[in-house]
Amino acid sequence: MQYQWNFDWLANYMPVFVNGVAITIELILVGAVLGVCLGIVCAWVRALGPVWLKPFVAAYVELIRNTPFLIQLFFIFFGLPSLGMKLTALQAANIAMVVNLGAYSCEIIRAGIQATPRGQFEAGASLAMTPLQTFRHVVLVPALQRIWPALASQIVIVMLGSSVVSQIAVEDLTFASNFVQSRNFRAFETYLVATLTYLALAIALRKVLDGVGWVIFPRRKV
Amino acid sequence: MSLIAITDVRKSFGSNEVLKGIDIDIARGEVIAIIGKSGSGKSTLLRCINGLETIDSGSISVEGAQLLTEARALRELRLKVGMIFQQFNLFPHLTAGRNVMLSQMVVKKTPKDEAAEIARNMLQRVGLGEKFDAYPDQLSGGQQQRVAIARALAMQPIALLCDEITSALDPELVAEVLAVVKELAAEGMTLVMVTHEMRFARDVCSRVVFMHQGRVHEIGPPEDVFTNPRTPELQQFLGMSQAA
Ligand SMILES: Nc1ncnc2c1ncn2[C@@H]1O[C@H](COP(=O)(O)OP(=O)(O)OP(=O)(O)O)[C@@H](O)[C@H]1O
Ligand SMILES: [Mg+2]
Question: Which class does domain A19-216 fall in?
Answer without folding.
Answer: mainly alpha
